[in-house]
Amino acid sequence: MKPVAIFRHLSIEGPGYFATFLDNKNIPWELIKVDAGDVVPADPGRYSGLVFMGGPMSVNDDLPWVSRSLELIRQAAQKGIPVLGHCLGGQLMAKALGGEVGRNPIKEIGWGEVTVANTVAAAVWFGETRKFGAFHWHGETFSLPPGAERVLSSAHCVNQAFVLDGKHLAMQCHVEMTEAMVREWYVVGAGEVAAASSSPAVQSAAMAEVDLAQRVAALNAVSEKLYSKWIGGLAA
Questions:
Q1: What is the tens place of the pLDDT at every residue in 106-146?
Q2: Predicted local distance difference test score (pLDDT) of residue 135
Q3: 101 near 91, Cβ under 8 Å?
Q4: What residues are paired with 29 via a beta bridge?
Q5: What are the residues whose beta carbons fall under 8 Å from the beta carbon of 198, sequence distance 6 or more?
Q6: From edge to edge, which strands make up the β-sheet containing 29-33?
Q7: Cα(50)–Cα(39) distance, rounded to whole angstroms?
Q8: 148 within some domain
Q9: Which pLDDT score, from 0 to 100, does residue 236 have?
């Protein structure tokens, strides 16, 4: 089986629980460290699926790898190779497929409830789950590309996730989190949290770490559903 390509844009924003999931399913994967200078490949056909992780930059920044990533996503969609995006990754998918990315009304950092849409498409991905606590760290958001269907929303961000063609999933929120990642992000991002503390959707590190093990375990259970659905479309 061809490996799943995972694109990392910042050293602390790796695949997290998604890598654990793939290992448990004996699915090969390759980490492409964009942050370390790895080149974004031109041919998505080398992989069974493409996964884009988060990062502090904007898809509207003039970075050389952004245009290559957008083109790779477009080619993958045309060839039916499933694409999965987390936060920045979801924004890359939205822009590549015809949506727009801009500032969210407020910054979201920390745990926040997201609501699953009452649609057939949402039920295919989330089953009977109606709401769950997701992790957030973003100041921008995406619009829906043509043909995409919203499957998640929250009080502070209307478009938390969309699906396209039954096999592509783009998320604004983070579902790949581990306990270690939550703690590390708050250490590295302490200045950003302090600067945005007036936002009603920004939690302190102390608040985010309350019942952290239980929160992460519950999130991993939701992720298991999403990732299981996504790998069902992996290319041969």
A1: 999 999 999 999 999 999 999 999 999 999 999 999 999 99
A2: 98
A3: yes
A4: 4
A5: none
A6: 29-33, 4-8, 49-52, 83-86, 168-171, 157-164, 149-154, 101-116, 131-142
A7: 14
A8: yes
A9: 78
Dist. CA 138–CA 133, nearest whole Å: 16
Closest CA to 33 of 1, 55, 61: 55
Tokens of 217: 């375990």
Range of the domain at 205: 4-231
pLDDT tens by residue, 21-53: 999 999 999 999 999 999 999 999 999 999 999
Other beta carbons within 10 Å of 133: 18
For 69-80, letters b (16+ CB in 10 Å) and e give: bbebbbbbbeee
The CB-side HSE value for 195 (13 A sphere, CA atoms) comes to 6
Please choose, from the candidates 235, 77, 61, 48, the residue with its C-alpha nearest in 3D space to the C-alpha of residue 163: 77
Active site (catalytic) residues:
87, 174, 176
**What is the CATH classification number for the domain harbouring 20?**
3.40.50.880
Residue 224 is assigned to a structural domain of this protein:
yes
Amino acid at 102: G
Structural domain includes residue 236: no
**b/e per residue 152-177 (b: at least 16 CB within 10 A):** bbbebbebbbbbbeebbbbbbbbbbb
DSSP state of 55: -
Task: Confirm whether pTM is higher than 0.85.
Answer: yes
Q: How many domains does the chain have?
A: 1
